[in-house]
Design goal:
- The protein has six helices and 14 strands.
- It is an alpha/beta fold.
- The protein has a single domain, classed as Purple Acid Phosphatase, chain A, domain 2, CATH 3.60.21.
- GO terms for molecular function: hydrolase activity.
- This is Phosphoesterase.
- It comes from Leucothrix pacifica.
């Protein structure tokens, strides 16, 4: 960790602007981090650009960005909207600001939260809109759990190499999906569908030792330690949804 200065990171996720507007107040932040499910398609990045902030914005796509769009080609459109602006779209790539390296990827999950994956995959494919309204243009087919499971493995492999080769002493991971069962709300701890929201990445965190891990997807506030890594999720959630405990100006200093 750097000792001479601190950087104030404001974390928000799951704003779901497709359902209700939101006015961002970033007056205390040095960097705004948006950890996915901001709006569908390119509209989340367009909104982030329209804020006209004089601070960097780090944007990682969630699953909802891809609703009624194609994976992975939507990333090309997201990057085009952000080009030349203060908004930085990260998908298996990094951004270094003042000695802090941000490693960003949507991540998805391995479906192995409760052990074997086949039943969780089957439940997700049957019940989640992700596997009905997102087109996988790599395989020319509707996105399926087998696709996102493979994407997760590729992203995790990239993240390990990225952390290993990082030029910075301070490393912040930004994903949409969660790295630990500890991010699961109590009411979902026996729900096999939770395997589509998080993976058991505690051994990964212990090995590669990021300083902070921001995520979204789970509509409940989380703030805990995995060893020396602070894990934070600060989602707004859906209109009139209870239990999110969203903090509008949540600041994490690194």
């Amino acid at each position: 960790m750097r000792e001479e200065t601190t950087m104030k990171l404001q974390i928000q996720s799951d704003l779901h602007l497709e359902f209700a507007e939101f006015e961002a107040n970033c007056s205390q932040a040095d960097v705004l981090i948006l950890a996915g499910d901001i709006h569908v398609g390119t509209k989340g990045v367009e909104w982030a650009v329209s804020l006209g902030l004089d601070i960097p914005v780090i944007y990682v796509a969630g699953n909802h960005e891809f609703y009624h769009h194609a994976y992975p080609s939507l990333f090309t459109a997201l990057l085009k909207v952000a080009e030349g602006t203060h908004v930085h779209v990260l998908e298996n790539n990094t951004l270094t600001l003042d000695g802090v390296t941000f490693h960003g990827t949507t991540l998805w999950t391995d479906f192995q939260l409760f052990g074997e994956s086949w039943s969780a995959e089957a439940m997700a494919e049957y019940s989640m809109p992700d596997y009905k309204v997102i087109w996988n243009d790599t395989d020319d087919d509707v996105l399926a759990p087998r696709h996102t499971k493979a994407i997760h493995a590729n992203s995790l492999n990239w993240l390990a190499k990225s952390l290993e080769s990082s030029p910075s002493e301070t490393n912040v991971v930004v994903t949409h999906h969660a790295p630990s069962f500890r991010s699961c709300a109590e009411r979902f701890k026996n729900d096999k569908m939770s395997a589509a929201f998080m993976s058991n990445l505690e051994p990964f965190v212990e090995q590669w030792k990021p300083d902070v891990w921001f995520h979204g997807h789970c509509h409940n506030l989380s703030d805990y330690q995995l060893g020396d890594c602070r894990v934070v999720c600060n989602p707004r959630g859906y209109p009139r949804e209870s239990g999110t405990d969203f903090i509008e100006q949540m600041i994490v200093e690194v």
